[in-house]
C-alpha cells in the first residue's frame, strides 16, 4: 500500500511537471527579431532573440507583467490630468493594456517599427485597437518628426538587439531625439524611459549616460529602479519644478485617495523614487547623433 502511494505521488508529480513544461506556441523571424511566444502553466511570455519582453497571465491579462511597466504610471505625479499618451515600442502591450484598463479616458498612440510584433501582440497578448488606442507601424523618431500631435506623456520601451543583448536603438538615445520628444510634450509633459540595466552594477555606464543626456535637454530627471528585474525607468519632466520623496508620497497618496490612479501597486512603487543622479553620471558624456556609442557602453 505504501509503495502504491509512492507510485501514485510520483505519477501526479510527473503529470504536474509535464503540464507546467514550457511550450513554444509560436516562433518566427521578422526583419528585426527572432520572436517566440511561450506558454508555461498559466503564464505566457513574449521573447525577442532570447530576451523576455512581456509576461502575462492568460486568464487575467492585467496580471503577470514585469515590475518596471508599473513605473510607466508614475507620470501622473507630475501631470494629474493626463489625456493623451504616446508609447514607442509595443512588445506584448503590457502598458497599453494597463492604460486601457485603468484610464479609460486617456488616448494612447502606440508606435511599433515591426509589423510582425503588432500581429503577435494582437493574436497572443490581448492587444486591441480601439477608439482610445491606435497603433502606428513606424519608427518612433520618424513618427515624432512627422506628427503635429502634442502629448502629456511619452513612454519609451523600444528594443534593439546588440552583441551584448537587448538595448535601446541608438537613434532613440541622443540629445537631438530627446529635443524632438520635448517639443511634442505639453507644459507639464513627462518622458518615461525604460533602460535594461542597474544604477550600480550591470550596464551602470549606460544608465548614467542616458540620465546625463536627458539632463542636457530636460530641467528635471528622476528615476525608479526596479527591484524584481534589471530595469531602470527614468522620468524627465518639461517643468523645472523640483520634486523630492516627500512631495512624491503626498502627491501619490492624493492620487490614490481620489481614485485618479487605481493601479493596486501604485502607492508601494512610490518608494522606489530617486531624485539624485546615478553614480555613473559623473563620468558620462552626452550622446549625440554624431556620437551615440551605445554598444560601447554595454557590458
Question: Can you lay out the helices and strands and say which pair or pack?
Answer:
Elements: H1 2-20, E1 23-29, E2 34-40, E3 43-48, E4 51-57, E5 84-88, H2 94-102, E6 107-112, H3 115-124, E7 133-137, H4 140-146, E8 151-156, E9 160-162, E10 165-167, H5 175-183, E11 185-196, H6 204-215, E12 220-225, E13 231-237, H7 245-257, H8 266-269, H9 294-297
Parallel strand pairs: 5-6, 5-8, 6-7, 8-11
Antiparallel strand pairs: 1-2, 2-3, 3-4, 9-10, 11-13, 12-13
Describe it.
The protein is α/β, with parallel strands linked by helices. It has one domain: Rossmann fold (3-Layer(aba) Sandwich), CATH 3.40.50. It contains nine helices and 13 strands. It has helices at 2-20, 94-102, 115-124, 140-146, 175-183, 204-215, 245-257, 266-269, 294-297; strands spanning 23-29, 34-40, 43-48, 51-57, 84-88, 107-112, 133-137, 151-156, 160-162, 165-167, 185-196, 220-225, 231-237. It has a seven-stranded mixed β-sheet, with helices on both faces. A hairpin with a 2-residue loop joins β2 and β3 (43-48). The protein is globular, with a radius of gyration of 20 Å.
